[in-house]
Structures are given as C-alpha cells and as structure tokens.
Amino acid sequence: MRIPLRDQLWLLMDRPDNLMYINCLVWFAEIPDWDEVTRAIQTRMVEAHPVFHRIPVRRGRRWYWVDDPDYDISNHLVRSRLPEPGGRAEAEAYIAEQMAVQLPKGQPLWRAEFIEGYHGHEGEQEGALILFRVQHGVVDGIRLTQLVLGLCEHEDDSSLPSVGRDLAPSGGGILGAVTGAGAGLAKDSWGIARGVTGATLRFPLTLARLARDVAAPGRTLTRVPTRVVESLTDNINAENRTANTYRGVFRLLFEPRSPELSWSGKAHAEKKVSWIAGLDLAAVKRVAKVHDTTVTTVMLAAVSKALTEYLDTQGDRRVSDINLMVPMAVSAVGDELPEELGNHITLILMRLPLWVDDTDELIEAITTSMTRVRYSLEPHVNFATMLTVAVTPGPVAHAVIDLFANKTVGQLTSVPGPVSTVSLAGKPVSGMLGWVPMSGDQALGICIFSYDGTVSVGIATDAELIPEPGAVAGMIEGQFTTFDGWYDED
C-alpha cells in the first residue's frame, strides 16, 4: 500500500535527537491480566489495523507499507519492572529513558510495554503502567488515543467527546474549501477597509501600538515585519477570514526563529518527563464559567502563567509571547476508526502571551488568538505546505521542517477523553495521558488530556534545555488555585 503524503512527512521527521514518536501512558491501581491485555491488542489493534504488522519501504521517491514477513507480536510487547521503590520519580525516569530509544528498523513501528512495580498511585496495592510508543507516520495522537480507548471496556454507552472539524465540511476537499471561501471575500474586504479606515482615524494610537509591539522585550529587528502586520490586523474583526488568512500566512513565511532564552539551544537525544494527574475537571469548568470561556482556554492560561514563572526563575528577560506548534484535526474523528489509520491533522503556530498578570486580559488574548485561527484558511495553507514538503528531497525537507519548527518553543495539544471510567482486562484504568514528540530544536512538549472527571497534563522536555520538567508541572498545577472560581461550590 502506498503511504499517503500526509503520513510520509511524519516518517521523514524522525531524527536521533528528536524521535517522532507519540507516547501514551495508561496506569492502573492493580495489575491487569497481561494475557488478556495481549489478546485485546492483537484483536482490536493489530488485526483491525494492518499498519501494525507492516513496515515502511522506499521505492524510488515514494514510500509504501509492506507486510512484515517475520512479524511476531512478541517483538512488540515488552515486560519490565520499575526499580524500587517504584514511585513517580522512578516511573518518570524510566519513561524518559525509553523515549530516547529508537524502535528497531525493519519492524513495524510500535511497541507496548507492560510495566509492573508501580506505587505512584494512591492505592496500597502494587499498580502497573502500559506505555504505548508509536511512530507518528502510523497514526496521529488523536486517533492513537481513540485506538487505546478501543482496547478498553466502557461502563456506559457514552461516546467520546467530538474532536476536530472538517476543514472542508461541504465537500470538495481542501481546494474546494479555499475556493468556497472566495464567496465571503467581498464582505471580508469591506471589514478590512473599515479596519484600515479606523486605524487611519486612530493613527496616533495605532502608531503607538506598532512602536510598543516592535520595541517590546525580546523583539529583534527580524520580528518587525510580522509585528507590523499583526498590529494593523488587530484593528480588523477577529472573525474576518481574509485578514486572518493573510496574517497567518505572513507569520508562517516571515516569523523568525524563537527568541533566545534559557531553554534555547540545539536539541539533545536525552529527554525528561513529568506529569500532573487528578486535576478536578469540575473546578476547571467553574473557572471557565466565571471568565466566560472554555476549559481549553483556562488550561492555556495556566500554561502561560506557569511558563512566565519558569522564565522568571531562570532569570530570563521578559518576552511578551512565544509560539507553540499546535496540531489541529483536518477531519472530524468518528466513533469508528478507519482500517487505515494515518494522520488527519495539520499544524498551526499559536501565539501564547506571557507576562500578563490579569487573568481576564490573558484569557481574552488567548481567545482572540484562537478565534483568528478558527476563522482563517491558515490550517488549509499549512496542510498544503506539509504535503509539499513531503515530496521534496530529504535534505531539503529536513531543512524546511527545522525552519518552521524553530519558530516555536515546542508543541502543545489538548485531547478530550471519556467522561466515565473505562477498564482494561477487567481492571479499572486509573488515568491516561500522553507526551507529544518534538521537532527541530524544540525544548518542550505539553499534552492536556481529560478522563473521568479529571485533567492530566504530560510534560516532556529536552533534558539539557529544561532539566526539571517537574518544576514546570508544579508551576502549572499551582496556577489553578489563583483563578477565580476554583474553590467555588457547584
């Protein structure tokens, strides 16, 4: 089977110092029956999705999935045990060590590791972990989550929360969506004209804003062009698709490398991980209600404040914002996974404000940033760019990938999980989370995941650039208690 270009790109993004693997962790308060877990993986994952017994083979300039004649599931299932005392510290160190290990070449690109000796949960019994590692070319993170949940038994018939949206919901593909957007061009142009007119009438204020943005801390001369465009388009309605598309494409082309801070530098193979587990989702929803926003925006506000605190502790100069690479689904995830999994995502550059003390002001800035992406063709343009990069010669593709990745500090994703408890091999799943891969010289990956009334956050870092991800995790967790509504009663 010919590998689609959207998957071929992720295969090419592997590099020794930043493996393009998605890592998903499931933990239990009791040890499940590993034979039952193996049967579930064999029947619901491997047999249902042939890519798990295929290997990528290059023929000319294209890649193909080819059945592995020597496939044996035992090559992909590993049993291990944490060193004593088997707490969170030992689990984090072990998982970080595994994240730097490349899967064997010539075999299907996945592994599931059954890890015993875990005592980092609240129960008194010995618990266990399952660590899934899958190369991104096989499947994207949203569908991997759905795949892992498909191994489980659900206590009720409730479906997973809807994830993603079709970039071209009316049909006609991405090109059709771009063509159809022309229908709103006249309306958008009128909005742009009004925005420019307003900027002209408020010229002194607009000029002051331009000067402030360009002269803000961390702004080098290379950042002037994008700041000028952003300051001008700030006068245009945040739902103006044409203006937002120009703004997004301009940033994609001309945004410079991420500013030099304590976490800047060349990537290293060694990684470190940490995580937050058990955040009360109901409390996060209360905060969202108080600030008239969404759970995702509240989580991003906590990340912003935590990263601000981290940079402050490192003695870094103030920067008004950073860029994060955020995956966005290009098609809605249905209840049933297709036989051929693959990647159905694009990537966007999200501007995350920093050093904003007022929570309402911070939430408004994040909301506006997300709205501009939603009402634009930036995801479509980025998706087309990714497909183009996939067919370029290897050295050129790697250079382009690094160019775009290094405009950002790291990657961030948010995935909603089931609202009730699920079980695997008869044992309740205590929690789930993931760690997103990094690319280029990115130093940080953050994955937000909700499950059974709680929120977990997985933090992965370059061991040299951010040596203490646990400190970042603690800072994120500590921000919630400062938000209005956190301690309110339902």
UniProtKB/TrEMBL annotation:
| One Pfam family from the record | WS_DGAT_C
Q: Which residues form the O-acyltransferase WSD1 C-terminal domain?
A: 342-481
> What superkingdom heads the lineage?
Bacteria
Pathway the protein contributes to? Glycerolipid metabolism; triacylglycerol biosynthesis; Lipid metabolism
Is Acyltransferase given among the entry's keywords?
A: yes
Reactions catalysed, semicolon-separated, are: an acyl-CoA + a 1,2-diacyl-sn-glycerol = a triacyl-sn-glycerol + CoA
Molecular functions per Gene Ontology = diacylglycerol O-acyltransferase activity
Q: In its keyword annotation, does this UniProt entry include Ribosomal protein?
A: no
Give the Enzyme Commission number. 2.3.1.20
What does the UniProt keyword field contain?
Acyltransferase, Glycerol metabolism, Lipid biosynthesis, Lipid metabolism, Transferase
Q: Which SUPFAM superfamilies match?
A: CoA-dependent acyltransferases
Q: Name one GO biological process term.
A: triglyceride biosynthetic process
Q: Name one GO cellular component term.
A: plasma membrane
Stretches assigned to the O-acyltransferase WSD1-like N-terminal domain = 7-298
Family designation: Belongs to the long-chain O-acyltransferase family.
**Name of the protein this chain belongs to:** diacylglycerol O-acyltransferase
Species this chain originates from: Dietzia maris
